[in-house]
Amino acid sequence: MDMGLRGKKALVLASSRGLGKAVASQLALEGADVMLASRSEDKLAAVKEELLALGGGGRVEYVATDVTRKEDIAALIQTTAEQFGQIDILVNNSGGPPSGSFESLTDEDWERAFELNMLSYVRLIRGVLPHMKTNGGHIVNIASTSVKQPIPGLILSNTFRTGVFGLAKTLSQELAPYGILINTVAPGRIATDRIRELDTARAEQNGVSEDEIAEQFRKEIPLARYGEPEEFAKAVVFLLSGANTYITGASLVVDGGMVRAL
């Protein structure tokens, strides 16, 4: 299948590692021009070289960006448009908020999570719209399985990731007249640094090893294993590609069947 991505201009957030890097890699393999963004310039430079070595033929650039700063987002979008001439694809992504119970979290924790996991998505979508309204575009917001089933101990994620899905569902109607498709993809237990960090925290709380925690989760996953970042990325890239012409406002759970909710 021709994914129709060669020459498309993509902006991928939090792309120096984990799920964002995996999505950026798949886009680069398909021949898209990819703008990387995260806070670490050193990591971005290394990922740029990795993506160019894949041989997809597209350009790879990067801008060090803190998505909690609106001026950084504005500069990122301006640079992407100047470098690539247009923006066809936006992949909203951000690091997960800290774990904790309702009573353990402060106002500052809530404000930080809102800026990182909700407001940054709003600002980035608002910023790319002028570049997509003429020729259409594809937006994917990376969230969490908490959009379908709350995760114990992750009240910040449960709150703001669900808000991201509500935002995308609403925008799917507002943006449809411009040919802009927007979807939410919810990763489950994908083998990234973020999941390892959560497993470590849970292991410490329960006085057991990380391996025991991972084994408990594997028993809850019908496919009996954690997913690989590349598997997640391929699902995202389909939604971003020319092969997707009629899916918008959807939430796609990529979790090996772990979530039981309909």
TrEMBL record:
<dbReference type="GO" id="GO:0016491">
    <property type="term" value="F:oxidoreductase activity"/>
</dbReference>
<dbReference type="GO" id="GO:0008206">
    <property type="term" value="P:bile acid metabolic process"/>
</dbReference>
<keyword id="KW-0560">Oxidoreductase</keyword>
<dbReference type="InterPro" id="IPR002347">
    <property type="entry name" value="SDR_fam"/>
</dbReference>
<dbReference type="InterPro" id="IPR036291">
    <property type="entry name" value="NAD(P)-bd_dom_sf"/>
</dbReference>
<dbReference type="InterPro" id="IPR050259">
    <property type="entry name" value="SDR"/>
</dbReference>
<dbReference type="Pfam" id="PF13561">
    <property type="entry name" value="adh_short_C2"/>
</dbReference>
<protein>
    <submittedName>
        <fullName>3-oxoacyl-[acyl-carrier protein] reductase</fullName>
    </submittedName>
</protein>
<comment type="similarity">
    <text>Belongs to the short-chain dehydrogenases/reductases (SDR) family.</text>
</comment>
